[in-house]
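Pilot study result, target chain (311 residues):
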Amino acid sequence: MRAVNELDGHDMTQPLVSCVILNSNRREDTLACLASLEANTYPNHRAIVLDNHSTDGSVEAIRSTFPRVQVFPLPENRGYTGNNNVGIRLALGQGADWVFVLNEDTLLDANCLSELIRVGTSDARIGMLGPMVYHHDEPNVIQSAGGVFGRGWEGEHLGKNEMDHGQFSAPHDVAWLTGCALFVRRAVIEQTGMFDERLFIYYEETEWCLRARRAGWRLVHVPQAKLWHKGVRRDYRPNPSFTYYMTRNRFLMLAKHHAPPSVWLAATTQTLRTLTSWTLKPKWRAKREHRDAMWQGAIDFLQGRVGMRAA
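Predicted structure:
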């Protein structure tokens, strides 16, 4: 017989997992993600989809195909951070023990949730977990096996673009976890809060992971939990807005967490070196828009501008 908490009816041996998914005109991706969730072997999970003004029939398709999935139209676009926070609040209000922040362009292995729960419940100090993330177009090539910080607190993925030969064979502690699939214990959210909405998008998961670690929680990557991500490929070429947010938000994270002078020096040196290269070297003429976005990101940080990038 399963142990049940008499106060709220929760199955203590199968914690409730609420999966929070954003959708904005990505009907087919979201439907495929939900189908992979439905096929998972772990039984006690729910899905919450936050729809950002889709015009492609997403809401109707989700509701007709997956009637048990909760779909909430967002009244306004508050970015990746603010929109996900709406879903996280809903999940907590419905009694979630774990919240799985999940990109709509991901596909889960059938045992993904079971493996995350297995490891997460093995140690009460584990606050966040992440699966092995593979490139969708190269199913055996690793996109992220968790992350580490560089000298300037830039996020670096472990195993990035490596063929999986079993080099990550056991769960291991990491400095941060990729935001496309972030599995978070309820107590972490109650203690540290949710995404910092000032960031809007990018560096949001890195900052939250840093906050959790500083509060004493372990962050663990689980290779046995597998997931495939469509949004980033080996030849990924981000747009200038990515450069803007990555520049501004890294400096914002450094300021928020009182980074030591050595980290500030490394981050500033890296930024200035890149700006100089993109300005002076003829081979980087194509990077002029990124150069301007990086300048704007640095200036906006200094001037205290947060949230969505100004047009």
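One observation from the pilot: Residues 240-302 form one domain. A full batch analysis is planned for the follow-on phase.
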